[in-house]
Structures are given as structure tokens and as C-alpha cells.
Design brief:
By secondary structure, the protein is of the alpha/beta class. It has helices at residues 15-25, 27-35, 37-46, 70-73, 77-82, 101-112, 132-140, 155-159, 167-174, 190-210, 218-222, 240-250, 285-297, 305-316, 319-322, 331-337, 364-367, 379-388, 395-412, 419-428, 436-448, 460-477, 484-495; strands at residues 6-14, 58-68, 86-89, 121-125, 144-148, 163-164, 212-214, 254-257, 263-266, 303-304, 344-346, 352-354. The strands form 3 sheets. The chain has a 6-stranded parallel sheet, sandwiched between helices. It has a 3-stranded antiparallel sheet with strand order 7-9-8, with helices on one face. It has a 3-stranded antiparallel sheet with strand order 10-12-11. Helix 13 (285-297) packs across helix 14 (305-316). The protein starts with 5 loop residues before the first strand and ends in a 6-residue tail after the last helix.
Length: 501
């Protein structure tokens, strides 16, 4: 590794592969990729992950090469030349349109190994698994590699690289693609704003107690208000995310953290300053510990964190809360620092402290049990997931995701970067946590199996049948043949949770 403050990187772009991969999902993405390479080059140099830990290096793309079919994509050549690329023309060599781009790229990457600059990193923009041997060779020479694959790619190819450039992140941050903000639902009435403020107070209290509130846990907070009823309306905001944004806007110090899954917390910039237990008037940990144990010992049931916190503030004054719970950030975090013996803390919303020798542990499924229980996937599912990266979800979860996809596309159309977020949030609104990466994998599988979203009303069972075909294709590519019994198991796995007509 070089001792300079940046990575010396060489970039190799299989233009046809990436462009066509984007074009199959959304033409806008393909066109932006081909006409604005300077945007995503800037992101690769300054914002894209490098595989380093904290304090990671930036990149300098010392080599920029684009391999392109001039017969099919000649109009995009000037954009890459203008952005400082060496453009290598790779015309078709067969009647089927096969070019020599992969051979040219492989030879150039191996030649670059002997370059006097000694490149630290090789970046490959292609989903072609034929580059797997080249990536392995680069690893043998102690060179870092990063790969962007659009659509399905071999797990072996991905695992041969040090850094996987996430397709969704590339689109959002590299190309700046995103759905335009939804139009506001008019002026919020005084009555509705009053409800939002009361919900915000409750949510802020829970966040102060537990530290964070996951998206799937928000429903339990909202359902405690008579004005809210679970459904598609969400107080007129029509989605969990938009309603939560409105609630957070009415709060004094909350923020939404955009991770996968997203969650709500007390905004560190607006929350109370860290405390100092040595200051006069603040209790010691032992003093708080004694109060917590007394409160739990006096109760026949698990005690809500807020009630325990109230006992602490009654004993020591509100200064302990204003101190940020002695710098812990949340009351739950403070309690977890205490030596409570066998007493436990539960993260089930709104948070509990309990003695397992006397109390039944809080159970989230009993607090808000989903309408349908989930069963374990069939045995073949685990093997398929390990070889193809197909999400290892239960049949019921697949039914929920497919149903949410159909509803979202029917309501708002298909959008490459935003549909996965919206589907994830639809599931979260039902108390079901599904990773956006899993939703993205399913969406891309449906598209690359030949389905065109929006041509007709989407039906979950139709989407499921297409997804089954994609799974079978992935198994074939992974050299994992399935017999008739295994194929029936795959169909039952993907489609079994859907209700028959």
C-alpha cells in the first residue's frame, strides 16, 4: 500500500455491460451514466467507499479507460473523452454482437500490474463474471479491487472483490437520481398539527428512554393515539415515512437517521449536553442503581422505562435528565451501565426493566402480533441463498414484499432508486422489518427475468411467478442444478404465502 494520503486507482469501464444493465431497469439511469461520467467519477474519487476503516483515503483515478461498442453507442464517446477517459473502441466481432471488450479489459488490467506507478486499486465497472480470474490475480499481487455490477452478478465474482459498489448508492450519490419530493398535502390543519405534536411528545419520550426507535417500532407508538388507525391513510400523509417526517418536524429535538432500516433518535445537536457525574447535584451510578432496583422490586410486572426514569428524577431532581442521563444519551443506555445483578432491560417499545425470576419477559410479538405468523423457509432455500444471494425470507415475508411491490407500483409507478425504499417502508408500516437490500434484489430479479413494470396492473402472484423463474436462472448460473422436487420446493417457498384467488 502506498504511503500517500490517497489511493492510486485505475478505472476500467465495460460501457455496454453497465449501460444495458441500467437500461433494462430505467432508461434515465442509463442515459445519465453515459452523458455525465464526470458526476460519478467525482463521486468515486471523493465519496465512494474504499474498503478502509475510519479515516479512509480518497482516490485519484490515474487511469480512466472506457471500452465501448462504437457501432451501438458512438453518441456517448464524446462525453467520456471530455471527462478525461481513454476510449477503447470494441466493435462487434460476431453476428450476435459480441465484442472483445472483456479481453481488452483483462489484458490492460494485467499490463497495469507492471506499471511503474504501482496502482493501489483497480476499479471494474462490469457485472461480467468472466473478470473473476483477473480479480483473483490482482489479489495475489496485493492490489485492492472494487466492483460495480448492475443487475444479477455471480456471488463468486462479487466475493473476489474487496469493495462492492452498491448499485443503489451509485445511482443516488453518483448519478443524483431520485424521485422528486412528493407534493405536500396542503396546509396542515390546526387539529392535525395538535395530534402531530402530541405524538411527537410521546415519540420523543420513547427516544429519550430507549435511545432509538426503529421504523417497525413506530407503529406501536402511533397506535396509542385514538386519532390514528392502522391503514393506508397515515393521518393523511399516506405513508409511514411521510407521517414520521411530519411528526419529527413538530418535535423539539428528533431526527430521522437514513440507514437500512431507518430509525428515529434524539438529535445530538439539539439534545441535552453530556453530563458530568462529578458536578454538584448529580447522583452517582450507585445511587441511581439503588433507585432502579427498588422500583423493579416493588412491581409485580415489568416496569416501563419511563416509570423507572420518573423514579430517578423524583429522587435526584430533573438535573439528571438535563445532563443527558449522565452523558449516556438515553435512560436505557444509562441503566445498561448499572450493576443490576439479574435485573434485565428490554428494548421492546416503550422499553422495560424486569426481574426474570419474578416477571415474564416483555414479548414484542405479544404486544403487537402480526396478522400472520411466519414459518421457516424450506431446506432448499438456505442452499439457494448461500449460492445465489437470494434473500433467505420465509414464504409469508415473500408474500408481504410481493404484495407491497404490486401496491407501490400500481400507486406510484416503478422507479429504480425509490421503489425499494417505498416497499421497505410499506412493510415497516405493518410492523414487518425487511431490508431495502433484500427488496432491491427481488425487484432486480423480477426485471432481469423479463418483467416490465407498469405495462399492466401488477399482481403479486404474477410477480412471484416471474421471481421463481429468476431463482431457477440464478441456480443455473451458479451451477446448482435442481430436480423436479427441488423446483416444486422453490415454487412453494416464493409463492406459498400468497393467498389463493
Amino acid at each position: 500500500m502506498s504511503d500517500v494520503s490517497y489511493l492510486r486507482s485505475a478505472l476500467f469501464v465495460d460501457f455496454d455491460n453497465i449501460f444495458l444493465g441500467f437500461d433494462r431497469q430505467q432508461t434515465e439511469a442509463a442515459v445519465l451514466f453515459g452523458t455525465h461520467p464526470e458526476k460519478w467519477v467525482r463521486w468515486l474519487e471523493r465519496g465512494a467507499p474504499t474498503g478502509e476503516t475510519e479515516g479512509s483515503q480518497t482516490r485519484r483515478l490515474l487511469v480512466r479507460r472506457c471500452y465501448i461498442n462504437p457501432r451501438s453507442f458512438h453518441e456517448y464517446r464524446p462525453y467520456f473523452i471530455r471527462s478525461g477517459f481513454e476510449v477503447v473502441d470494441c466493435p462487434p466481432l460476431t453476428s450476435q454482437g459480441k465484442t472483445s471488450a472483456d479481453i481488452h479489459m483483462a489484458i490492460d488490467m494485467l499490463d497495469a500490474l507492471a506499471h511503474s506507478t504501482r496502482f493501489d486499486e483497480f476499479i471494474v465497472l462490469s457485472g461480467d463474471a468472466d473478470f473473476t480470474p483477473v480479480l483473483l490475480r490482482l489479489r495475489k499481487h496485493d492490489r485492492r479491487t472494487a466492483v460495480l455490477a448492475v443487475g444479477p452478478a455471480s456471488p463468486a465474482y462479487k466475493s473476489s472483490s474487496d469493495t462492492l459498489l452498491d448499485e443503489s448508492v451509485f445511482l443516488e450519490k453518483g448519478l443524483g437520481i431520485g424521485r422528486a419530493p412528493a407534493a405536500p398535502h396542503g396546509v396542515v390543519s390546526v387539529a392535525k398539527r395538535g395530534v402531530l405534536r402530541r405524538i411527537a411528545v410521546q415519540l420523543e419520550e420513547v427516544a429519550h428512554m430507549t435511545g432509538r426507535v426503529e421504523a417497525v417500532e413506530l407503529l406501536r407508538v402511533y397506535k396509542s393515539f385514538a386519532e390514528f388507525s392502522q391503514g393506508e391513510n397515515w393521518l393523511g400523509f399516506f405513508s409511514l415515512r411521510r407521517m414520521t417526517e411530519a411528526v419529527v418536524a413538530e418535535a423539539n429535538g428528533l431526527e430521522i437517521v437514513d440507514e437500512d432500516p431507518w430509525w428515529v433518535r434524539v438529535d445530538p445537536a439539539k439534545g441535552p449536553p453530556p453530563g458530568d457525574a462529578t458536578k454538584s447535584g448529580l447522583p452517582t451510578l450507585r445511587g441511581i442503581q439503588n433507585v432502579v432496583l427498588e422500583v423493579v422490586a416493588s412491581s409485580d410486572t415489568p416496569v416501563v422505562l419511563a416509570a423507572v426514569a420518573q423514579g430517578v428524577t423524583q429522587s435526584f431532581g430533573d438535573a439528571v435528565r438535563r445532563s443527558g442521563w449522565l452523558g449516556a444519551g438515553s435512560f436505557k443506555a444509562l441503566v445498561e451501565r448499572l450493576d443490576l445483578g439479574g435485573v434485565r432491560v428490554s428494548g421492546v417499545i416503550p422499553g422495560y426493566v424486569f426481574d426474570p425470576t419474578r416477571h415474564e419477559a416483555p414479548d414484542a410479538s405479544k404486544v403487537d402480533k402480526p396478522e400472520s405468523a411466519t414459518s421457516a423457509p424450506p431446506a432448499v432455500a438456505e442452499k439457494i441463498s448461500s449460492f445465489t444471494e437470494m434473500p433467505h425470507l420465509s414464504s409469508e415475508r415473500y408474500a408481504e414484499v410481493l404484495t407491497a411491490i404490486a401496491k407501490e407500483v400500481n400507486d406510484h409507478g416503478y422507479h429504480l432508486t425509490e421503489t425499494s425504499k417505498a416497499v421497505r417502508d410499506r412493510c415497516a408500516g405493518k410492523g414487518i422489518q425487511v431490508a431495502r437490500s433484500h427488496v432491491s434484489f427481488i425487484l432486480k430479479g423480477i426485471v432481469f427475468a423479463g418483467h416490465c413494470f407498469g405495462e399492466a396492473t401488477e399482481e403479486p402472484d404474477v410477480l412471484g411467478a416471474v421471481l421463481v423463474n429468476n431463482v431457477l436462472d440464478l441456480c443455473g448460473r451458479a451451477q446448482m442444478p435442481l430436480d423436479e422436487a427441488a423446483i416444486r420446493d422453490v415454487e412453494a417457498w416464493i409463492l406459498g404465502g400468497l393467498s389463493p384467488d
